[in-house]
Amino acid sequence: MQKLIINGGKRLGGEIAVQGSKNATLPIMAAAVLCGGETVLHNCPRISDVYSAMKILTYLGCKAGFDGSGNTVVISSETISANDISDELMREMRSSIFFLGALIGRTGRCRITLPGGCDLGPRPIDMHLSALRKMGAVIREEYGVLDCFADGRLHGAKINLSFPSVGTTENIMLAAVLAKGVTVIQNAAREPEISDLADFLNKCGADIHGAGSSRITVNGTEKLHGCEYTVMPDRIACATYLACTAAAGGEIIASRCRPSDMESILGVFEQMGCIVHTHGEKIYFSANSPLRAVDPIRTMVYPGFPTDAQAFVMAALCKAKGTSVFVENIFENRYKHVDGLKRMSADILVEGKVAVIEGVPRLYGAKAAAPDLRGGAGLVAAALSAEGTSEISNIHYIDRGYEDIEKVLASAGADIKRE
Ligand code: EPZ
Q1: pTM of the predicted model, to two decimals?
Q2: Would you say the CB of residue 167 lies under 6 angstroms from ligand 1?
Q3: From CA 263, how far away is CA 283, in angstroms rounded?
Q4: For a pocket test of ligand 1, which of 118, 197, 328, 330 has the largest count of ligand atoms closer than 8 A to its C-beta?
Q5: Could you read off the pLDDT of 100-137 as tens digits, one per residue?
Q6: Measured between alpha carbons, how far is 357 from 335 in angstroms, rounded to an integer?
Q7: What per-residue confidence (pLDDT) applies to 356?
Q8: In CATH terms, are 4-19+233-418 and 22-219 the same topology?
Q9: What's the CATH number of domain 22-219, 3.40.50.300, 3.20.20.60, 3.65.10.10, 1.10.10.10?
Q10: pLDDT surpassing 80 at residue 23
Q11: Can 118 be counted among the known catalytic residues?
């Protein structure tokens, strides 16, 4: 198993070109199933979840792959020769659930097992299934296998989400674009990745309005076509590298990013005492003075503070002067990185949804295992600020969402290598 060896204490500097968004790329790759033609996606990150999505697309009869060494993915979905997805493929990531909406939308049939993904607590799909049933899908659940079919085409429906679930909103959009009639999603998720998916689908001939707001309307069309599209920047990966700089100290320019997606996170960094200037696709970020504790951070749906940023912002706060508090409102079990941070001598108390961080003067390198994708990134951020050497194992979690994390950080001056 590979691991990252990090010798902390080096300040970061230089420019980091931020990768394309994992959480926009994955639903858009599933959406390509609906197009029945060739789709060219630019700015896709070379991460294991994207390769997993390619495996599913290939299994379904599509052609899918990076064209050459860049970040462009080409998908041809003229023929769909299967509409079931093996348990092994479904378990590789949470985003496999998007193929449910896309396959039912395209073929009227889909047989899958429950999706995998980081263990952040029970991650049910009850809202996905309830919404698809409202659109006419017949879904039988037996022994963890979901056998779903629509008698002919799905039909539009008015769907009120009890919670603005990102994945549910996306899955409904994928099922609705080829359905008969109009679908309205009330209390829809507002994350920027939702708007990116809608922009992609509209470029393929769909008729979606209101993405980014709490009410999305989809007028079903007969057919979609392929298109060429550039995926949005990854706001969470960008925030990760800012948190690494806050933790280790230094000044970086994050380029190819979209600061307007990140206001809640940038506000927290400023509260910590970091200097943040934004201009177009660049963020000029410096952390040259000791960090300060911040007001309580409550993870919320967009545009609130994102749960995905909780772990690595916590890592940056471990040495901030004072007491910081997190309330994790989105997932039941998203503090598994705290053990690793405490191995590095962080002073953190977790009680249910609440984590209390007492700033300590220094952290010390330690061996720690990445518990999940963003928790692993948090351990890397802390290791960069620790004295001595850290070994982060289980980095396959980190590779699910970050393209060449060690190369990116080494290019900014970190002493980090993969073994
Ligand atoms: C997406 O997950 C992201 N993943 C997650 O990012 C992100 O943390 C999450 O949205 C919240 O922003 C992708 O986009 C691939 P949800 P998703 O449906 O769609 C509960 C990362 O690190 N829920 O908004 O699974 C659910 O259990 C990943 O990049 C139900 O109860 O998130 C959770 O508590 C981690 N029933 C809450 O809603 C359902 O049917 C939010 O889930 C669906 C969700």
Answers
A1: 0.97
A2: yes
A3: 12
A4: 330
A5: 999 999 999 999 887 766 677 767 889 999 999 999 99
A6: 12
A7: 98
A8: yes
A9: 3.65.10.10
A10: yes
A11: yes
